[in-house]
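W.,

You were right to be curious about this one. When I first looked at the sequence I had no strong expectations either way, so I just let the prediction run and decided to look at it fresh. Below is the sequence, 122 residues in total, followed by the output.
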Amino acid sequence: MSTATAGTKPARSLPPLMRLTDAAAERVRALYARPGAKKYLRIGVKTKGCSGLSYEMSYVDEPGPTDEVVTDQGLTILVDRRASLFLIGTVMDYQTGTLSSGFTFVNPNEKGRCGCGESFHV
């Protein structure tokens, strides 16, 4: 039985703020296990590049007052609240190539990227 009244739609749930692939979770675990490592990985966005926004990652010992806490695959990462709307539904991956390796983001909110892949816009 639906609790919505005539003329109103039931609220739809939002996708998770972020998810980690198995490869990303494995890499984050390794980074957290390093001697002297900071306790949390914080994800944010900043104004940068030709498309406008760029992903920003930093390590911190404590969540900030405006951080969103995301738990996936037994790991906790932090998301800067100012970046939340840009990141809803994002999947973080870790890829290793011949010449480089690093975290990548599959973000359903992106409308485009610059040619070099450094920045994106929503």
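Here's what jumped out at me. The chain is about 15% helix and 40% strand. And, maybe more interesting for your project: The chain has one domain: 18-111.

Coffee later to discuss?

I.
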